[in-house]
Amino acid sequence: MPFTSAVSRSDRMLPHAARRPRAWRWLAVLAVVLCVHWIAAQWVERNRETFTSGNTAHVPVQIALLTPERIERSPAETAPHPAPPPEHKARAAASKPREHVLTALRSGPAPVTAASAPAAEAASSAASAAAASTAASAATAGSAPAGGHAPASQAAPGVKFSVPPSGDLQYDTFYNGVRNQPGTIHWSSDGKIYDMVVSMPVPFIGTFSYSSHGHVDAFGLAPDQYIEKRGHRAEDVAIFNRTTKQIAFTKTPASLPLSDGAQDRFSMVMQLASLVRGDPDAYKPGVTRQFFVVDNDSGEIWPIETIGDETIRTQQGYVSARHFMRLPRHAGDQRRIDVWLAPSLGWLPARILQTEPNGTEIQLVWSGPLSPPGGNGNATSTGNGGSATASGNPASTAPSAPDSPMAPDTAPAPVPDKP
C-alpha cells in the first residue's frame, strides 16, 4: 500500500513538471517577439524620412493673399485704338488761333499803330508757342511707334501672365515611393486656346487620365471642358458653359455658378505656371493665391501657398524649382497637393505630388531633358510651331520659314539693289 500511494503521488506531480518547460518556452518566445518589435520600432524611427515625402517643412507665415484678377493684355491682343480724341481736339484748338492770327496779319495792309503793336506781338508769341507745343506733341507721338514702345494707355492693365511653351512632357510616376510606368503631360497652346492631357498609370487599377480643354480670356486659362477617367471606370465630365455662366457635371445633376478665373484640377497647375512665368518675383515664400477649382462633381476655393525654392532630383540630374502647396481647405483636411515649378524648364512643373487622406502618395517627377520644350520658348506664340519645335528636330522648322511675313522682304528684294 505505501508503494502504491508513492506511485500515485509521483503520477500527480508529472503534469506540473511538464507544464514548467512549456511556460518558460512561451515566456522566451514572448521576450523574443517584444525584442524584435522594439528593434523594428527603433529602425523605423531612425529611417522615418525614407517613408515620408520630405515635404513637411514648416509653412511660412502668410504675407499676402492674391485673388483672381484680370491679366495684362498686350496691344496686339486688344482692339487697335486710334489716336486719342482729346489730342486731336487740342491740335485743332491750337491750329485755329494760329490761322486766325496769321490771317489778321496778312489782311492788315494798313499801318500798325503803336497801340496795336503790343497786341500783335502778344498774338504772334502765342501763335509761336502753340505751334511749338503742337510740334512737340507730334514729335512725341511719332517717336513712340518708332521706338517700338506702345503707349501705356493702349495696353490693358492687370497681372503679368505668360503661357508656358507647348510640348509633350515626360515624367516618372511613383505610387507610395514605388516606380511605375512613365507618365506624360501633353500641353499645347497658341495663346488663344489650350489643350492639356495628363496620363498616369496606377498599379492594379489602370491608367488615370485627366483632360482639360479651353481658351485664354481676360483672367487667363478658361476651361471649357474637364474630363476625368480613372482606370476602367466611365468618364466624368465637367462642362464650363460660358453662355449660361454655369458649370454642369455628368456625375451629378447639380450645377455651380461659373465665376471669373475658375479652373479645373489640372488647368490650375498651368494657370499658376503662367502667373509665375509672368512675374516670378511676386511669388515669395508665404504669398498665397486663391483659385476656384472644379472637380468632377463639385468646386471649392484652393489656397495655394508659396513655400520656397528647393532642389528636385530627376533622372537627368538636379533642378531648382519653386515649391507651392495647397493649404488645408477645412478643419481635418488631410489631402495635400504639392507642385514644384522649375524656371530652367520654362516654369513647367518639375514635380507634382498628391497625398491622400490615408497616406497614399502619387507623384510625377520630370524625366525629360533639363531644358524647356522648344529650346528658346518660341512655342508660346504659335501652338503648331511650338509642337514642332518641342520635338527637338531643328529641320522641322525649316519649311515654315517661307510662311513668315518677313520672308518675301528678306529674300528677293535686295537683289535688284546690288551694284
From TrEMBL:
Basic and acidic residues biased stretches: 86-99
Top-rank taxon, per record: Bacteria
Comp. bias (Low complexity): 141-158, 378-410
Pfam families, alphabetized: DUF3108
Region (Disordered): 73-99, 141-161, 366-419
Residue intervals passing through the bilayer: none
InterPro entries cross-referenced by the UniProt entry: DUF3108 (IPR021457)
Record-given protein name: DUF3108 domain-containing protein
Species this chain originates from: Paraburkholderia phenazinium
High-level lineage: Bacteria, Pseudomonadati, Pseudomonadota, Betaproteobacteria, Burkholderiales
